[in-house]
Specification:
CATH architecture of the largest domain: 3-Layer(aba) Sandwich
CATH class of the largest domain: Alpha Beta
Shape: elongated
CATH topology of the largest domain: Aldehyde Dehydrogenase, Chain A, domain 1
CATH superfamily of the largest domain: Aldehyde Dehydrogenase, Chain A, domain 1
Largest sheet: 7 strands, parallel
Number of strands: 17
Radius of gyration: 43 Å
Distance between the termini: 106 Å
Number of helices: 23
Structural class: alpha/beta
Strand order of the largest sheet: 10-11-12-9-8-13-14
Number of domains: 3
Length: 652
């Protein structure tokens, strides 16, 4: 039953996607060398089988020419491979040192690849290669009319990839083909991106699946021959492109437009190189057979030879006819043969000059070819560039067959079998699709300019009043505390006054911190020099009391710098600390200032955190120079012992 077949195809699509995703989870961690080895093996296998696959494609579909499909297979297996061979797709793929930016490649996952019947084997080869190169898995959905040749292509490349180290299931193809299976493949939760090549209906379905998609629509390609062109070469290029594989490529020429000044020469060259001009009656009959009422090409003439089409319509053509040429006066529904025909049928237009030719080319593109390809043959670079600037086409091929130039065979464009049409044609990109379209690019960026809102406002000339809260200064807390010593000194003095102790008279911020004496500001130059400062080997409690009362400072010998002395008076604990380079005094009392302020102030110069009353250092810890402190429950006992040890501390 049909329903059973549909269900089987849907289930197969699910199974293959899940298997490809599982294989991809392993393949995604491959190195660049491993990826390149797998891609090289797959490309070589496809290249070796090019002739076999070309014959199979023509036999199964009835479209095209074996030798032309052989060239397309070789192009996909060798030219595309040569282009992507040295491409970085693993790890850091690009460095921009001047901006300190590094681009990192990440694979997207599983690619759902929709393969057409017109170019089945070459498109399959191409999509498998770019998917493997970008470290992705791939599941192909073949056109029913080309299922066997696409399955064969997939099998050949899959075996080669596995032999080179690829995990099983990474490359797969549906053998149960149905529209429902294709829809399931595109919308499956494990599908990451869609590569859709086919008609507009398929492309719309891909974009409607909810997944990122690269869809390629039809190409109604105009070829304009300007009066300065090399006419024999221009006509040869157009006939070659139009007859190549019987016109099955979407970038093949669909209309020849020439200036009236060279019309006669163009006609002669067309006939000389295999073109046959149809009469009006023959053209009308051909239109009825070749074009469906829906204004789509009749599948019965797609990819067929000019001789086959003429016989089918019912008129004879000369031996060696390669292209059927139909003279038209306009573009649109009233001119059925002005559509994309996917066969060796070529519309023919004559225009006054290049400006009129420009408008005619636009009309052709708007009727089913927006964003795809245009070709121009001219020796006037100004006109060529004007065409490039004005035309709604993503590829403007100059002085070359559009068929071969657009895919990168005869031009420097990226070799590809999937050609984006950009926003003109409702596509996500206008590029020729490469492995770089199938990766996510992460960017590592380092700061190259510090952020300061105030500076930015000044630099940009902000005209209004600044009302938003300003960003605090980017100064470290340590620098902030040390740089503003006066408030700390003030708080210490305030505390001492509250305890009945006269604080020393301030001599400036530096005087409150430095142990060295300063010269008196009122001393005259004739006065005797100040007596030399003698560093003390030991400081007792009485020394400290006297120094505090007199406003003096007590220098301590550097030899005492490795130890911190403590002198207790009542409930006030004073620590005397020394540094190697200079003697520094610190006076502290619980409640005078926060421990954070003390810690930030002392730590940069090598002093221990001064303790508060709620957290005093035990005597043993002080002697060891330890940072450990007694728990709060021992506070009272420790304070009592400290008072008892006052005399002992002084005697030591």
């Amino acid at each position: 039953m049909v329903s059973d077949k549909d269900l089987r195809s849907i289930q197969q699509a699910r199974d293959l996607v899940l298997a490809a995703h599982k294989a991809w989870e392993s393949y995604a961690h491959s190195s660049q060398e491993e990826v390149d080895r797998i891609v090289a093996a797959s490309a070589a296998a496809a290249s070796d089988a090019s002739y076999e696959l070309a014959k199979l494609a023509v036999e199964e579909t009835g479209y095209g020419v074996v030798e032309h499909k052989f060239i397309k297979n070789k192009f996909a297996a060798e030219d595309v491979y040569a282009f992507i061979r040295d491409m970085k797709t693993v790890g850091i793929i690009r460095e921009i040192p001047e901006r300190k930016v590094y681009e990192i490649a990440e694979p997207v996952g599983v690619v759902a690849a929709i393969i057409p019947s017109t170019n089945p084997t070459s498109t399959a080869i191409y999509k498998i290669l770019i998917s493997l190169k970008s470290r992705n898995g791939i599941v192909l959905s073949p056109h029913p009319a080309a299922k066997n040749c696409i399955l064969k292509t997939t099998e050949i490349m899959k075996r080669a990839a596995i032999a080179a180290g690829a995990p099983e299931g990474l490359v797969a193809c549906l053998s149960e083909v149905s529209l429902q299976a294709t829809q399931e493949l595109m919308s499956h939760r494990r599908t990451s991106v869609i590569l859709a090549t086919g008609g507009m209906g398929l492309v719309r379905a891909a974009y409607s699946s909810g997944k990122p998609a690269f869809g390629v629509g039809p190409g109604n390609v105009p070829a304009y021959v300007e009066s300065s062109a090399d006419v024999p070469k221009a006509v040869r290029d157009i006939i070659t492109g139009k007859s190549y594989d019987n016109g099955t490529l979407c970038c093949s020429e669909q209309a020849l437009i020439c200036d009236r000044a060279i019309e006669r020469e163009v006609r002669e060259q067309v006939q000389r190189q295999g073109g046959y001009f149809l009469s009006k009656e023959q053209a009308a009959t051909l239109a009825q057979v070749a074009v469906l009422p829906s204004r789509l090409a009749n599948p019965e003439i797609v990819g067929k030879s000019a001789r086959f089409i003429a016989d089918k319509v019912g008129f004879a053509v000369p031996e060696g006819t390669r292209v059927l040429v139909v003279e038209l006066d306009g573009v649109g529904r009233d001119y059925p043969l002005s559509i994309e025909k996917l066969s060796p049928i070529l519309a023919f237009y004559v225009v006054k000059d290049w400006k009129e030719g420009c408008e005619r080319a636009k009309q052709v593109l708007r009727y089913g070819g927006m964003g795809h390809t245009l070709s121009i043959h001219s020796k006037n670079d100004d006109i060529i560039r004007e065409f490039a600037l004005q035309k709604p086409a993503s590829r403007i091929v100059a002085n070359s067959p559009a068929t071969h130039g657009a895919v990168g065979f005869s031009t420097g464009l990226a070799p590809a079998m999937t050609l984006g049409c950009g926003s003109y044609g409702g596509n996500i990109t206008s590029d020729n699709i490469t492995p770089l379209h199938l990766i996510n690019v992460k960017r590592l960026a380092y700061e190259i300019r510090a952020v300061d809102v105030n500076e930015a406002l000044d630099a940009y000339g902000y005209p209004g009043e600044i009302t938003a809260p300003q960003t605090p200064s980017m100064v470290s807390p340590v620098s902030s505390v040390i740089g503003t010593r006066a408030p700390l000194e003030t708080r210490v003095a305030s505390f001492l006054e509250s305890r009945g102790v006269t604080p020393p008279r301030s001599r400036g911020a530096d005087a409150s911190f430095e142990g060295e004496s300063e010269p008196a500001t009122n001393a005259s130059s004739s006065e005797a020099p100040a007596p030399a400062v003698v560093a003390l080997e030991f400081v007792s409690e009485d020394d400290v009391r006297g120094a505090v009362s007199d406003g003096r400072k007590l220098p301590v010998s550097p030899r005492r710098s490795s130890r911190h002395q403590r002198v207790s008076s009542g409930t006030t604990t004073i620590f005397l600390c020394g540094c190697e380079s200079k003697t520094t005094w610190r006076l502290a009392r619980a409640g005078a200032f926060s421990p954070m302020d003390i810690d930030l102030c002392l730590r940069p110069i090598g002093c221990f955190l001064l303790l508060q009353e709620a957290c005093i250092r035990t005597r043993a810890a002080a002697e060891r120079g330890s940072h450990r402190v007694a728990p709060a429950r021992r506070l009272a006992k420790s304070a009592h012992r400290a008072r008892q040890r006052r005399g002992a501390c002084a005697s030591r």
